[in-house]
Each structure stands twice: as C-alpha cells, then as structure tokens.
Amino acid sequence: KRWRDIYFASTPDLAPISIVLTTLAGQHYAGEPSPMEALSRVVSSILGALPPFGRLYVLNPMNPLEDLSEKWDDDPRRYPAFVSGLRMLDKDLAAIRGAHGIARGAEQLERLFGPVVPGVITEQARAIEKARRDERLGVTGTRAGALATSVGPSVIAVANNTFYGA
C-alpha cells in the first residue's frame, strides 16, 4: 500500500483501494522467507493472473458475490493504471534484487517507498549487529541465504568475528 501511495501521488483518483491490494497480496503470498521475496512473488504472481482480455476481478474471499475491484469499472483509466503500475513495480523490484551494494538498493527502495527507507535500513542494521553481538546471527539454509536473528535447525550460525584479523 505504501508503494501505491507513492506511485499514485500525482493521480490519487486512479490508485487501487487498499482492500484490493491486501486481498491480492493475501491470495498470492506463498510463505516466502523474506519481505523482498514475498513482494516480488506477489507482484509477479498477480501479473501472471491478469486475464488477456477484460480486467481482473478481485472478489471478497468471505463473500464471492462481492467484487472488491468494482471501482475499476467507474473510470476506464483505473484498471490500466493499476496494471501499468504493477508492471513498473515488477521491473523496479528486479532492479533492486540485482543492485550491487546496500546504498544502491536503498536508493531504489526509497524511490518506491519514500523517505521511511533510510530509517528502516538503519533499524535493521542495528538489529543485525545486536544479534551478531549476542551470537544469535545466522543464515537460513534456503537458496536465498537470508540473515536470521535466531539460530535453529534450518539456520546456520554465523561465526563470531573479532574484526582484527586472523
């Protein structure tokens, strides 16, 4: 939803409503281990579900007779704006995943999600450093190799580093 607020800042009347975004995210989330993997998967999965003709219908999971996306019919610009924005987000997320270095990735994330990004990155760095000091920092055994702040059966502990050489 934060992406929506940034992307549609100059055309808020075209922005998809929150319930459409959260319903789609819930339908397409598959338990990915990291927020970036989850967001990338959700976006690509929604794009894959777009019909070749007409528009996507987002139905209320508790009442399938209710079309949560009915506002797309009120203005013929809304649905194409949603699809265009989603395609752009997919490309931007691919660029972030391919970015070399935290500074470049952070710059791209800030463009998508706004000025909250530097604070979030700083907070994450502090949490990782605390986990390292407390000897709770690990790497998941998944192919993504995500950092984890607890060690367990599927997490490989990161060896303590003294930062003063061998």
Protein model, in words:
It contains 6 helices and 5 strands. The protein is mainly alpha-helical. The chain has a 3-stranded antiparallel sheet with strand order 4-3-5, with no helix packed on it. The protein has a two-stranded antiparallel sheet with strand order 1-2. The longest helix has 20 residues, at 78-97. The radius of gyration is 19 Å and the shape is elongated.
Short structural description:
By secondary structure, the chain is mainly alpha-helical. The chain has helices at residues 2-7, 18-28, 35-49, 78-97, 102-113, 117-133; strands at 59-60, 63-67, 138-140, 147-148, 155-157.
Overall strand count: 5
Low-confidence stretches: none
Class per helix and strand makeup: mainly alpha
Distance between the termini: 47 Å
Strand order of the largest sheet: 4-3-5
Helix content: 40-55%
Which shape, going by the Cα principal axes?
A: elongated
Strand share of the residues?
A: 5-15%
Order of helices and strands: HHHEEHHHEEE
Number of helices, where a helix is a run of at least 4 consecutive DSSP H or I residues: 6
Mean pLDDT: 87
Rg estimate, integer Å: 19 Å
* Sheet having the most strands: 3 strands, antiparallel
